[in-house]
């Protein structure tokens, strides 16, 4: 890629006010401003021609890397052969995507409702659980992140992302994530749904014990509540299986997918559920609609992304083992800064001694051309979301630059 005249400073000067001048100035002063120009495979390039190894991938949106060739071809062909389509009508493209979801998701998850974003899909899932049960209470894991729309924002753990929009939606209650006793004390015949991620991605990257989700499933069945599993981040191969909940061999009532669902090429999400959940709709088949959900083009792109994810997972997991070995070695050699590393599949959480050290690592890596991100609720825990196309070359590049950065931490 060749550079353009649009430097960071020039972007701020020309466009900054359109994005909020104070907001843009804060990002620039933090040293994390990137003006994107292109993406290819595991890399993004800025407008000045600098290359960055992308180990954030927008929390897994670009799970197959940037502009994965098979997904690009599918989208190009779809734009030539397909109309966008209507939210009221069906097509073979939509049918094939719904069939692929029913084939790959656990148990009896067969019915699908289309959506555009993860937040929208989470809101849909909660409304469905309330409608199907006739109840209102929603239990959710503490320090969670399920999106920023109405129902989803009500569950967010970070006060500074929630308080300015309050009052939000009543009858939501946080339980201690991974603690069966906390759920046991809270769940009742008032509970419509329990909303959980397979791994708590935005706080500490922690996976629960092996017996946690089976017991959650049992308690939901006992009390007639719906188990909603948020796979917006953990799905599409992120945890080493196509769907993260497969680690625990548990069938939820509702599964939500987004982010990597289209391999980063199209805004699309889905709510997949046991078919009887829709029975309460009765004679009205249009109780929930979304104008831009599941175009024919997006359906073809997402189905291709599922197929490519299935194909790449064995190789990706092997590369994930190699990256884990690098991280474990760094933790051994730099224990004063990097206290420990947690891994579930292709999600890595790096525990630094405090938030200052975590941010210095993130900014140091950014200056060296590697993009990683912190948990928004816990800056001491940077996370890695490597693409499924990761190779030895990128692992070596990360190892070198991570060591250079760790050496500079006080």
Give the tags:
seven-stranded mixed β-sheet, Aspartate Aminotransferase, domain 2, four-stranded mixed β-sheet, globular, single chain, alpha/beta
End-to-end span in angstroms?
36 Å
Q: Please tally the β strands and state the result.
A: 15
> What is the element string, with H for helices and E for strands?
HHEEEHHHEHEHHEHEHEEEHEEHEEEH
Strand order of the largest sheet: 4-10-9-8-7-5-6
* Global shape: globular
CATH fold title of the domain at 69-309:
Aspartate Aminotransferase, domain 2
In the CATH hierarchy, what is the class of the domain at 69-309?
Alpha Beta
Largest sheet: 7 strands, mixed
Low-confidence stretches: none
Q: Average the pLDDT over all residues and give the rounded result.
A: 94
Report the helical percentage. Answer: 25-40%
Output the CATH homologous superfamily of the domain at 69-309. Answer: Type I PLP-dependent aspartate aminotransferase-like (Major domain)
Judged by helices, strands and strand pairing, the structural class is alpha/beta
Tell me which CATH architecture of the domain at 69-309 applies here: 3-Layer(aba) Sandwich
Task: Describe the overall structure.
This protein has 410 residues and is α/β, with parallel strands linked by helices. It has a domain at 69-309: Aspartate Aminotransferase, domain 2 (3-Layer(aba) Sandwich). The chain has helices at 8-15, 21-30, 57-60, 69-81, 92-104, 118-133, 150-154, 159-162, 180-186, 212-223, 296-333, 355-367, 392-408; strands at 36-40, 43-46, 51-54, 111-115, 137-141, 172-175, 191-196, 226-230, 254-257, 269-273, 338-344, 347-352, 370-371, 373-375, 378-384. The strands form three sheets. Strands 4-10-9-8-7-5-6 form a seven-stranded mixed β-sheet, with helices on both faces. Helix 10 (212-223) links the parallel strand 7 and strand 8. Helix 4 (69-81) runs antiparallel to helix 11 (296-333), helix 5 runs parallel beside helix 11 and helix 12 (355-367) crosses helix 13. The mean pLDDT is 94.
